[in-house]
Amino acid sequence: MAPPAQPAPPTFNEESVEPIRRNSLAALRSLAQPRRPLEKCELCCTALAAEHRHLLETADNKIVCACDPCALRFQGVVGGHFKLIPRDTRLLADFQLSDPEWEGLSLPINLVFIFHSSRAKKLLAMYPSPAGATESLLPLANWAALVENNRPLASMEPDVEALLVNRVGEARDYFIAPIDRCFELVGLVRTHWRGLSGGIDVWEKIHEFFARLRERSEVVRSEAPEAAHA
């Protein structure tokens, strides 16, 4: 009796091999990518999701990652070692600031965040740079008038909220932003800046940052001074 016929070996052509090749290359690339280290709560060491809360360590203005249970322990705490950084960003839709008034603030750059520092006992104006967050040493002479014309600024929480200004090119964006968002912008600029002018990539990243911020923001409008005094 003749042995049973063996099945013919599979044949491969270029069209059938190409998907396998692409999938193999994609798998190799994914393995070659550096893995993002797992972030942990700096108070209890619990693993954190990509989106998580932050605290401000008031002694040295250090931003600390925290899980929700740890972070919420500091909600409403005044004068403690940590302050809870808020999540919400407010877009100031009708911010009152002319170009001459802006120039009167004597700031050296059109990308800046301004906040009240309890540690320094004064307003600080910081701007992103290739070296990190840089403090402007010029006095904010017209700040009181700016608050008078833009009432939401009076509600900014010291240390953890800032007026974030983007007047680069044609932009006229004004936000009350959590301080961690401001330092996210600082990190973006420091990471992507190239050469003397920054390069195309960093300005595209800045544009994308503010586009995302606008999408996430609550739009608020200033109460007119006349209405406030009525």
Polypeptide structure, described:
By secondary structure, the protein is α+β, with helices and mostly antiparallel strands. The chain has two domains: 38-85, no CATH class; 86-224, no CATH class. Helices cover 31% and strands 22% of the residues. It contains seven helices and ten strands. It has helices spanning 14-32, 68-72, 99-104, 143-149, 179-192, 200-216, 225-228; strands at residues 53-57, 62-66, 82-84, 90-92, 111-117, 122-129, 132-135, 161-166, 173-178, 218-220. It has a seven-stranded mixed beta sheet, with helices on one face. A three-stranded antiparallel beta sheet has the order 2-1-3. The termini are far apart. Mean pLDDT is 84; it is low at 225-230.
Proportion of residues in β-strands: 15-25%
Low-confidence runs: 225-230
Strand-and-helix sequence, N→C?
A: HEEHEEHEEEHEEHHEH
Major sheet attributes: 7 strands, mixed
Descriptive keywords:
single chain, 230 residues, alpha+beta, 2 domains, 7-stranded mixed β-sheet, 3-stranded antiparallel β-sheet, 10 strands, 31% helix, 22% strand
Short structural summary:
This protein has 230 residues and is an alpha+beta fold. Helices cover 31% and strands 22% of the residues.
